[in-house]
Protein 1
Amino acid sequence: MATAPVLVLIDHTDDGAVRPAVRELLALAARFGSVHGVWVDPVAPGADALAELGAHGASQVHVVAPNGEHHLTPVVAEAIAVVVGSVAPRAVLLTNSFEHKEVAGVLGVRTGAGVVVDAAGLEDSDGTFVATKSVFAATWTTRCAIRTPLAVVAVKPNAAEVVATGQGPASVEVHAVDAEAATAAARGVELVERTERAPSGRPDLSSAQVVVVGGRGTDGDFGPVADLADVLGGAVGATRVATDEGWIDHEAQIGQTGVTVSPRLYIGAGVSGAVHHRGGMQSAGTIIAVNNDPEAPIFEIADLGIVGDLRTVLPAATQELRRLLG
Amino acid sequence: MRIVVCVKHVPDLMAERRLVDGHVDRDQGDGTLNELDENAVEAALVLAAEHEAEVVVLTVGPDDAVDAVRRGLQMGADRGVHVLDDALAGSDVFGTATVLAAAVRHVEEDGPVDLVLTGMASLDGLTSMLPAVLAAELGLPQLTLATELALTDGSVQVRRDLDHATEVLRAPLPALVSVTDQSNDPRYPAFAGIMAARKKPVEQLSLEDLGVDASFVGAQGSRTEVLDAAERPPRENRVLITDEGDAGARLAAYLVDHKLV
Ligand SMILES: Cc1cc2nc3c(=O)[nH]c(=O)nc-3n(C[C@H](O)[C@H](O)[C@H](O)COP(=O)(O)OP(=O)(O)OC[C@H]3O[C@@H](n4cnc5c(N)ncnc54)[C@H](O)[C@@H]3O)c2cc1C
Ligand SMILES: Nc1ncnc2c1ncn2[C@@H]1O[C@H](COP(=O)(O)O)[C@@H](O)[C@H]1O
């Protein structure tokens, strides 16, 4: 008997590009069985997307065009439930965005599955999925077993190393969602307007390997932060103070009410290290802090702490890195 | 009109938190109203003033959780409902949502509930799944992560800022809305509000009162089980230097030495 597949919800842009975090999910899923993608969109995936999904381990992609607004999370959950009913997977993996956590929850209601979100790792322990989570601003690590036959897990960025399998394009299977079921799933919600943000030219913040963050200490000038991010090929993040001040867009906010990041390298400049901010970054591999106050709490968690003025330290570091990497 | 606001009592974020047997140690003293639920209470109070609504603050949790309800009442809500039962310990999001849904239906016995409001996440567990799960349980339209919220002619419209997009959603009432910390600035209870709250009623309910089967909730009803919990070891080999003109170069060298570039 072939083992049951693992489904991965394929997060993609409105114009059909697969978002980078999906590759990690595919690599993680491949540890547990054959990997099937789920593509929820009235527009089927293009050849590029199918090639990329195939090359990262998905043998099949289930395309579901719900007869309803495919951006509404309950409708996405209904679409996945249709595929779950058809292929009886062991698990469904999703990215850890606020929207996909909701999809995970509604899918749990719909299918009776056990759900874990914010998972930093996932293992198969004698047929039971066990997820690792860090809680309380990443000061504690818990292991959580999913007792139901179907496991639904939203996985944080950088939980698995991307693997290029070299397989050919994924094959496509099309599923239909009953129009009545899709309408019922939306429960009367109408999407009046949706504007997708244009890509920034920098890596996606939530899945970036390197994140350089500016706080109140930048005093509104993100130039030195952006320059350092660019020389490192990283993304730019911010504290809530910086986004509230309007120095940078709200989607750059890292923390408990913003984006959660777990990059290999986090550099915070003019960031005090408030508990709300730590909640979104403390699981980073290496933490570097530049702050002119030797008492700043961020130094308690920094691998390298530099007491100094970011307006001189950052440009000097950028210049030196340009020279070294030049 | 009637608005139910779901609030959670969480350990104080600033206090050191511990896990005992996989669950948050609630005996550590000072808990508070989940800060993000203050935004939900605030949103309810603003709407109530505009539309003459009754505001009911609802929580599911142990004894102390009543403090979260009290805080809501001090801010200006009219009455509270506290679901308290030993069988609830260890509930997962589905168990909690089942109980909250039963409690909302209980409030409906006094007259229709037009809006259920929640915060965006609880700062202890931070799953942010509850609003969507509760909406599904109640069969209500879900409009989550609202940064702006307006009620007009029996419908609710919200604006939401997501990771990759901005959306405007609309739905007929009754509906469930979760609000973000960007949606408003919660008021601080005035002395008069604190005094008035003492006289406001808080109804205490058990699972039996709500007709909820205890086997669906608590640790035994949970679909997931915490196997173990460990405090993360502190980071080792931490270095703190003071800039003497060479810190930029030392930062660069650190990255090179640690193979981070
Ligand atoms: C419910 C709630 C949710 C929240 N969610 C979030 C969240 O998701 N993310 C978040 O970030 N915050 C969040 N906050 C806010 C959080 O509590 C802090 O207020 C915020 O993180 C502080 O931002 P900051 O570090 O930029 O500013 P500050 O705390 O003011 O720190 C600025 C730092 O810059 C240093 N500095 C000043 N000048 C220089 C210089 N020239 N060179 C070097 N260093 C300098 C100072 O010494 C100071 O340490 C939340 C708050 C609440 C109540
Ligand atoms: N036990 C509870 N009682 C009442 N409301 C809750 C409870 N748990 C969560 N909520 C609500 O659900 C929101 C999201 O919580 P969570 O899904 O736990 O992150 C919170 O902001 C509260 O409004």
Protein 2
Amino acid sequence: MPLFGVRSRVPHVLFALHSAAAAFCVVGPGYVWWGAPARPFVLGLPWSLVWPLLWLLSVFASLLLYEAWTRRVEAARAAEQTQRERGDG
Amino acid sequence: MADGLLAMSSDAWVVSAVALAYLAGCLWVGMRGGAGASDSAVGYVAGDRALGPLVMYFIVGATVFSAFSFLATPGLAYTSGAAVFYVLGYGLVGFIPFYFLGPRAARLGRAHGYITQAEMVAHRCGHTPLAGTMALVSALSFVPYLALQIKGAGMIVNRLTEDQVPQWLGAAVCYLVVLAYVLKSGVLGVGWTNVFQGVLMMALAWAFGLWLPYELYGGVGPMFERIAQARPEVDGGALFLSAPGGKSWSWFITAGVISTIGFVCWPHLFMKAFSARDERTLRRTVVFYPTFMVFLVPIFLIGFAGVLFPTPPPSAEQVLPHMLMSLDLPVVVVGLFCAGALAAGMSTGDAIVHASASILVRDGWITALGRELTSTQERRAVRVLVVVLMLASYALAVAYDDNLVSLLLYAYGPIAQFLPGLLIALCGRRRDGVAVHAALVVGVVVCVGLKLFPQLAPWGLHEGLWGLAANLATLGALAAARRQPARCE
């Protein structure tokens, strides 16, 4: 059964891909390849700090979007269920 | 020592008074926190499964940010520079799996009455001795983790009293307060003190993290520019500011991976799935958790501010109290900072001691050994173990001389070995308890063995990763050998 009873897997796949990319970029070799240099300084902070902070913001944004989508789907499913029960009654 | 206390300057007395006021505040909040809970074991351990979003947010955030965050993190920034950013990395991704695992665990918890992680895994896999092993491994990891918080509190009190109050005594006073409200109020006492402590430490971390670089260097940007000039390797684009003796890439990546996995599996955090009011509360806690991570940024800045500080601290972990005591600051401000640092350690210590005692009773005594306890007896047993574990951790904290980071990294390794069993219990179709149990034992033995004999760990990788590899290999081999595993719901 699909997660949360939803047929479309696109949001799940997008969220999983984004989380995997974040993990690779801040924990795995991605940090070594793209996040490690101290320069350039951005707003006075070294790039090696700005890089995980940007990922932090993007993970927060993606979690917010994913949660909003999940809630909408759950609400729709609950409404559908109620309608079905009324129909049965 | 009485002579020493009398010899303390008036400034040290004011700082100590502020810290004592904070401790009194904690005690008051903690003692009142459990007023609404039932007298049952579920009330004491899981808050009657009724924790709302505010308490959940702070209970998770303040539990994660510990004495390690306030003392060891600036210490790591001071000694190894940007290597410290691994904390941001693992914290960022470590909690995402809980978005999916947490609500599923909560559903199972309500259906079957689970209040601990091991109880759920053992029951789902149909192998009750597994709960006992998980309880033992948890306790073995929790004791050093709690010792770390106790040691941190002792260090802070020692510094703020100008070395007149020894670390063992300072730690004892702080953790007597923790003991009092954990014994009285259980998880609700822990939760409400975490709200109080979380707000305090976040406010103080930001205030000091921005103020210190401004005071010492004229701002955050000028501070990093000055460090770059003094340390040419930064201009060369290197991650680590202190190349000699710095950490290797393999350490950076594998410590991050194991910490991420350990983060998902920490029993005291996972147990909160059984405490939340509903699934939405759990999911929202994960969604807003990254906002708590931002709290680490000022902590990093504090550590970097120490890099070019004129006088070196007695040890890296004391860089922050050392700077504060050396600068000409209003004493109330120094006292407030010390209160914030104590809050960070105590907010984690209380959750750990409460969780580990609950786990040992529920998983070790009741589930694994099959002893029957009434709700009142269970509650009493948890309280007795709170005292025992607190004493064991206190003894370790007093006896242990190595640095705080290594103590924390030791704790993550064995806990990371829970991951395969946890995933199988929550998502697996074939749940072979014997295979999960054997694999867990092998993983923990390899992990602890390589910690004791680090020269045997190939390529400088974190021992927890080798333990996990052995764990998965055993699980795969046993699952293949035992084609008809016992299934149990």
